[in-house]
Each structure stands twice: as structure tokens, then as C-alpha cells.
Amino acid sequence: MGGILSVPLFLDSKGGAPMSPHAADAQPLTGSAPGSAHAGHPTGPSSGTASEPEVLVRREGPGGRLGRLTLNRPRAINALTPTMVGLLDAALRDWADDPTVAVVVLDGAGERGLCAGGDIRAIREAVLAGAPERALAFWAGEYRLNARIRRFPKPYIAIMDGIVMGGGIGVSAHGGVRIVTERSVLSMPEVGIGFIPDVGGTWLLSHAPGELGTHLALTAARIGAADAITAGLADHYLPAARLPDLLDALRRAPDPADALAAFDFTAHTPPPGHLTTDRAWIDELYRGDKVTEILAALTASPVPAATADAAEIGGKCPTSLVVTLRALRAARSMTSLEAALDQEYRLAGASLATADLVEGIRAAVVDKDRDPRWSPASLDEVDPAEVDRFFAPVDVELGLAAAQSAAAAQSAAGQSAAAPAR
User: Where is this region: Disordered (predicted)?
Assistant: First the structure.
């Protein structure tokens, strides 16, 4: 698999304070995370003191028509905390209905990336403390934010420079304008820690061309700019050195939306990827509905990259692999991101009751031995009844799909009532 940078798959960071499930406003999981000094970034400032907010929210340009959101935990590669989720959600709620805001830009402080995901160490600590509801509350707020980004009524520009993984995908890839650079490294690495692709990942990957999403989900592969565009996770390539030009154009324009429409993204070509050329064998070998079938096809293939994929999948959590593939196949037929997020909320909650999630996070970011002991240890030992448990209804559902349907019906009724009688 070419063109993949060597970067840590998981973030070792800490953040926040206990909270109840489905809290309306996100709160930290365990204890607040300090800001830190860090080198500047082409798209915005970096955190300099512990008193700076975890998200920099400001308005720029004539009349403040450009809304700016900068994730501001650069030492943690801007790993998401509940506080950050709350700040982002509040800003987008306000700006959606504010006619003086025309465009919103999301970027990350520091040189390393937009966002390396959520704070998985804090998730583990919540489980070990006997307080899984803290993790559920974080996910509920995060998934609501993902849905809000998807339906944001104005141009939402996500600058996906550097590392963009897990939760970082959730705050960027659902946006309307997604920009990658030569430094971009995207991944959904959850099956490597006993979890499942969430933050709408099952929606995005199940709707990728052919079986590219299945490949990315089961291998947790890291991809660059060209492959991100091929997989439908990004829209435009722009060299990092030109990001300030884009922001200047948006900032100076009387209407940033006009400046965005006029900006020439076609002048640059990303470094070559491999998914376009590999798609033929990926579509053929990943089309099965059982992980064992896919693994057998990859192992038997004469394509070296396919056998490498088989070895990669062999080290992932067996239960996570089976649950992930089933979730992808189910999400493919869903009609909305909200429905996929509702499913992911059930899957995430079920993961909290397994030994695999705690063990996977231990191996990745606590002891860092990269040697998780999965239970069960092989695909053949995965119990179908245990897999069914992940998909079973829960006492308190997230309910995003129902809420969206109700809002759509209310909007349609309002439009009908406002229409002049004939």
C-alpha cells in the first residue's frame, strides 16, 4: 500500500468531568486538558496558554461573514473532548440561523493535523471506573454534531490538513467542502482497538465507490489526498502552502460564498494514490458478506497488496471485524446519515460491555505494547449471538433519524400552510 505516512494510529490524551447520558451540552470525561504552546499553522493560530479555549470561535472579514472554527489542542493533535464538541455544536447552531454568516471554515491548530480522533484513553478510564454512561454521553453529543455538520445550510469548509482520523473524520468528511493537502493522512482505525467505525463512518464508507469503504474499514488503512478524494471522503486538493491564499480570499470577499465558488481548485494535482488502480481487485475480493470469506479471498489472491491486507486484517479485533462488516452492509441501504449514527450508537454502547475495547485501548495507548489479547481470539470463535447483541435495540436510543423525520414533516407542514390558496 503506497503513499502512506508513518504516524501513530491512536491518540494518547486526556480530557474532561463526569456527565449524564445524553447531556445537552458536552462536558469533559475526566479532567480538563491544558492548552500548550505549539508551532503555528498555515490556516490559523495555535494554542499558547492553558487559559485558551479548546476551540477558537471567531468571525472575520467584512461584516464578520466568515465564521472560523479552529480545534485548539495541538499537543494532542486536536483530539476531541466533550468540551470541544459542545463549543462546535453551539457555534454551528448559532451560525445556521444567522444571516450575517455566509461560510464556515474548520481547521486545526498546530502542524500535525486537523484532528486525530476522540480521547480513547478517557473512554477506557470511564469504563474501568464503572461509569460507561460518561462515554455514551460523549458519543451522543459527538454524533449529534456529525449530523448537524451534514445538514448545515451554508458552505462548511473542512481543511483536512495533516492527520485526520476517527472523530476527525466526523467533524470534516460530513461537510460540504472538504479540502486535503499533500500532508493529509486519513484513517478510520477503530477495528484495531476493539471498536467500530463511528461518527458516521459506516455511512461514509458504505457509500464509497465499490468496496473501497469495506477495504478501508477492515484494514484501518491510512490514505493520502488522492485516495481520500477517490473514496469520497474529500472533494478538493490544495497544497498546504496555498491554504493562506484560500483563507485570504474568503476573508476579503464581500461574500465568502462567491469567493469560494470562484477559487480555482483545479490548478493543482495531488500526489498519486493507489485506490484507483487497486479498485478492481478490491471490489472483487471484498464483496463477501462474511469476514472469513473476504479473508480467504485475500489470502488466496496472487496480488501482493491483497495478501498484505489479509495479514493486516488478521491482527484486528475479530468481533469488531464481524460487527463492522455487518454494520457497513446495513448502512449501505439506509437513507440517511442519521439512521447510520443511530445504529453506531447502539454498536458503541454494546462495545462498552466487551473486554476488547478496554484491552485494545490498553495495547494502543496505555502500555503501548501493540499486542492486544482479543476475546475471542479468532474469527471462527466469534459468537453470532454476541454479534446480534450489538445490533439489538437499547432502552434509550439516540433517535436522530426519528428527530430528522419529524423536523422534515414539520417543515413541510409549515410550507404547506404558508402557500397561498388557489
Answer: 18-55
